[in-house]
Specification:
Radius of gyration: 27 Å
Number of helices: 29
Structural class: mainly alpha
Helix content: over 70%
CATH topology of the largest domain: ABC transporter involved in vitamin B12 uptake, BtuC
Distance between the termini: 13 Å
Oligomer: single chain
Strand content: under 5%
Shape: globular
Largest sheet: none
Order of helices and strands: HHHHHHHHHHHHHHHHHHHHHHHHHHHHH
Low-confidence stretches: 1-21, 377-383
Mean pLDDT: 79
Number of domains: 2
């Protein structure tokens, strides 16, 4: 997938390129102008002062309102009396122990995340760089989860150090995969894939170690609630150090925003400046995560709000001006989200709802809006060009995959907490098995059937989506369809605990349809451009994830645990009735796709070829996308949320048998069934009697594969 550079400022001329007549002189003038700009004194203009004063006023108002909100009847008068020392003991304890620490934590976290986002965006010249899209928050969260599981009782500063290491490793990997300035989509894809894999690891730890990780799920959604000033006092100096480092390198960061060649021309050490900037940004993010959990998308939205002022206040182009303004905007976002939450759902309910849910919803809207401003150059990604293979190779590949699938299915039936033999299965089929064997197979076989048909359905859905959108990195999970199906199913599971498999399938289908209408409807303008489609899909996926977290936090613990288990892609307790909807959808979709396989090839070529041959492009897209939505919804209803199958299986199939869908479809379906079935049997046998959902394992498997695809795509583009 080809992307385009989206710098924060117009790119300067490259001074090392062969010069046309007269270009040497223009290059020298440009270099002198850039040097003069960087050497110019940083004077505060009236516009920047006015904006700063306005932001400070907004933050002060929100802080005052936030202090007056809560479950206790403590208003502005009681707060003032507590600050002046004239309040009663009860009112003073509420204000000092809860209200003021919460407000100060919101200020500290917002400033840290806003400044970190501004630094990352200036350094990388990418408007989507942030602690979220670089997976810094996800890396910090999984590092703290691992520390909790190992039983380490760390003081707060040491926990911040653990979070710093996890966030730094994640950010380094994402930057290596995406390339600095390589475009918005590649960075978001790399960060989203890594964040999903790390979130799967965190979810696995939550399920395997419930006692050691008690309360970690709610913390993982981000909440600024505090119990005293201890956390703020300890992490405040860490934030100050990070801010001072950014201020110290502000001139060099401005040079990076002009381009590497321009920065080198004025004597800036590009590599050292980048390393220092990333370290400072990760330090700020780690402190925020340690104090309040991962509050999403503040570091993305705050610099974007400041960037809107560039035409009216040109001084915000300078990092020394935009960084503190982004910090103030971040504080306003965090406090505003907290105030809005308590105003909408009430003080009693808001205690249970993390602030990060609201900021994630705001970030999702921002991604969708940005999708319409991202430039896109169409074309097929270099990672998706596969040669035509011989018929013999196709037959051999199908035979091998079928053999492996049969072996895995047999292993799934025989292995588990109770080991069986093939003779036991034969006796069960003929009705001559004992009570214990009958019970084991009556519960195990439906699980295997559900895993096989759901994996095949997800693989077929991914193949259809990639063909219709001509995007080799598209799949139902990344495009938000899986998240929509999961939201619909979780909504029913948490509100109707006795819902049947058909009811869950219907709710998942409705959620998938709504998500698909939003994503494909918004992205259809201009023929499904790759940048727009991916950004809208990730935005919708983010919104559904935030809504699912909100439902789980608000429901009772029993339904919440059931929803978490279901979201992990578990086949536990599945019956043949649960697998029936996806089986019927898969059978119907296979018939339609096999009959329309040549039309699917044409749709995947371009917009003109199908029309020249008399094929209705819009109708074909509607049919194939409708089938993909139906398959995804029924698969999610059958086994829960299982990610990356719709990406990995079609890619692997094209690598094995070429691009013709007559060959890709059967291989992809078989590989999808194989992947989910293998993940299911591994999840319930490797750590028996404990179990892990197939969705967690497919995410752990699919994330490295997705990372490899991005790495190969970057190498091919280079």
């Amino acid at each position: 997938m080809s992307t385009t550079v989206t710098p924060t400022d117009p790119a300067p001329p490259r001074l090392d390129e062969p010069a046309a007549p007269g270009r040497d002189e223009r290059a020298r003038r440009a270099a002198r102008a850039q040097e003069a700009r960087l050497a110019a004194p940083r004077r505060l203009t009236p516009g920047s002062v006015g904006v700063t004063v306005a932001l400070v006023a907004v933050v002060v108002v929100l802080a005052l309102v936030d202090v007056t909100q809560g479950t206790a009847d403590v208003g502005a008068r009681q707060v003032w009396q507590a600050l002046t020392g004239t309040a009663t003991a009860g009112d003073s304890s509420v204000v000092v122990a809860s209200r003021l620490p919460r407000m100060v934590a919101g200020l500290l976290v917002g400033v840290a995340l806003g400044a970190a986002g501004a630094a990352l965006q200036h350094m990388s010249r990418n408007v989507l760089a942030s602690p979220d899209t670089l997976a810094v928050n996800a890396g910090a969260s999984v590092a703290l989860a691992i520390a909790a599981v190992t039983g380490l009782s760390l003081p707060l500063l040491a926990s911040s150090g653990v979070a710093f290491v996890g966030g730094l490793l994640a950010a380094g990997l994402v930057l290596a995969l995406s390339g600095l300035g390589a475009g918005t989509v590649r960075l978001v894809l790399a960060g989203s894939a890594l964040a999903l894999g790390l979130a799967s690891v965190t979810s696995a730890l939550l399920l395997l170690f419930p006692q050691q990780t008690a309360g970690l799920y709610a913390w993982g959604q981000g909440s600024i609630s505090q119990n005293g000033f201890d956390g703020v006092v300890q992490l405040g100096p860490v934030v100050v150090v990070g801010l001072l480092v950014l201020v110290a390198v502000n001139v060099r960061v401005d040079a990076l925003a002009l381009g590497d060649d321009a920065a080198r021309s004025v004597g800036v050490d590009v590599r050292t400046t980048r390393v220092v900037t990333v370290l400072a940004a990760v330090l700020l993010s780690a402190a925020a995560v340690t104090l309040a959990g991962p509050i999403g998308f503040v570091g993305l939205c705050a610099p974007a709000l400041v960037r809107l002022l560039r035409r009216t206040v040109p001084a915000v182009r300078r990092f020394v001006v935009s960084m503190p303004l982004a910090g103030l905007a971040g504080a306003a976002l965090v406090l505003g989200a907290d105030v809005l939450l308590r105003a909408l759902v009430g003080a009693e309910t808001s205690v249970q709802v993390p602030t990060g849910v609201v900021t994630s919803l705001l970030g999702a809207v921002f991604l969708v809006v940005l999708a319409f401003r991202a430039r896109d150059h169409g074309g097929v990604s270099p990672t998706d060009r596969h040669p035509v293979v011989s018929r013999l190779r196709f037959v051999v590949v199908v035979a091998v995959v079928v053999a492996v699938l049969v072996a895995v299915v047999l292993g799934s039936v025989l292995l588990g907490d109770a080991k069986l033999l093939l003779g036991d299965v034969a006796n069960w089929v003929t009705g001559r098995s004992g009570r214990v064997v009958s019970y084991v197979l009556d519960t195990r076989v439906p699980r295997v059937v559900a895993a096989v048909v759901a994996g095949a359905a997800l693989a077929l859905a991914g193949t259809l989506v990639q063909a219709v959108t001509r995007n080799p990195l598209a799949e139902p999970g990344i495009l938000g369809v899986t998240g929509g199906a999961g939201l619909g199913a979780v909504l029913l599971v948490t509100t109707v605990p006795l819902a049947t498999g058909w009811g869950i399938a219907g709710a998942a289908f409705v959620g998938a349809v709504v998500a698909a209408v939003v994503v494909f409807g918004l992205a259809s303008r201009g023929g499904f451009p790759q940048n727009r489609l991916v950004l809208i899909g990730i935005g919708v996926s983010t919104a559904t994830a935030a809504a699912i977290s909100l439902l789980i936090v608000l429901t009772d613990p029993f339904n919440g645990a059931k929803a978490l288990t279901w979201l992990s892609g578990s086949t536990y307790g599945r019956t043949l009735d649960d697998a029936m909807p996806v089986s019927l959808a898969l059978a119907a979709a296979l018939v339609v796709v096999v009959l329309q396989r040549r039309r699917l090839d044409l749709v995947g070529v371009d917009d003109d070829t199908p029309r020249l041959l008399g094929v209705s492009l819009s109708r074909s897209r509607m049919v194939f996308l409708s089938l993909a939505v139906l398959l995804t919804a029924t698969a999610v209803a059958a086994v829960g949320v299982v990610g990356f199958v719709g990406l990995v299986a079609p890619h692997a199939a094209r690598s094995l048998v070429g691009r013709r869908h007559a060959r890709v479809l059967p291989v992809a379906v078989l590989l999808g069934a194989l992947l989910v079935c293998a993940a299911d049997v591994l999840g319930r046998t490797v750590i028996a009697p404990a179990q892990l959902g197939a969705g967690l394992l497919t995410a752990v498997i699919g994330t490295p594969y997705f990372v490899w695809l991005l790495w190969r795509g970057r190498a091919s583009a280079s």
